[in-house]
Specification:
Length: 140
């Protein structure tokens, strides 16, 4: 992409300028950051009244949350006339049952509609759906 530096493995992570992320709107971005921080075991790397972000210990990706007045959670599955999902997050796990239990303990809710046996749709505390899935094609 123009305007972004090329990858240089000798550049320390904190000095890199090729970070990328996904930003979710939320009525309480700090609370949502704490949910995902606990869920993913990623540290909170930014937190202020209008937003927050978590990032894995390595790499240059992040998941951020921004304050949205009048936030309306999406509906899963899609329903005519209701707020639609425009994207969702997927997280591969090796123990689907344990991952679901953990997400529920942290304040997530299991969606009523589950599309596949190896996937569980969870709604985070703000109502964003995300998928926990076990890759059944791997040999592990």
């Amino acid at each position: 992409m123009r305007g972004r530096p090329g990858y240089d493995p000798s550049t320390p992570r904190a000095a890199r300028h090729d970070w990328w992320g996904v930003v979710l709107e939320a009525p309480d971005p700090r609370a949502l950051a704490h949910f995902y921080s606990e869920l993913l075991d990623w540290p909170i790397v930014k937190e202020d009244p209008d937003g927050a972000a978590v990032a894995p210990p390595e790499g240059v990706g992040y998941l951020a949350f921004q304050l949205s007045d009048g936030y309306v959670p999406p509906v899963w599955p899609a329903q005519r006339g209701a707020q639609r999902i425009t994207m969702h997050l997927d997280f591969e796990v090796v123990d689907l049952r344990a991952a679901v239990v953990h997400a529920l303990e942290l304040g997530g809710r299991e969606a009523d509609h589950q599309p596949q046996d190896n996937v569980r749709v969870i709604l985070d505390p703000a109502g964003h759906p995300f998928c926990l899935y076990r890759d059944e094609t791997s040999s592990g």
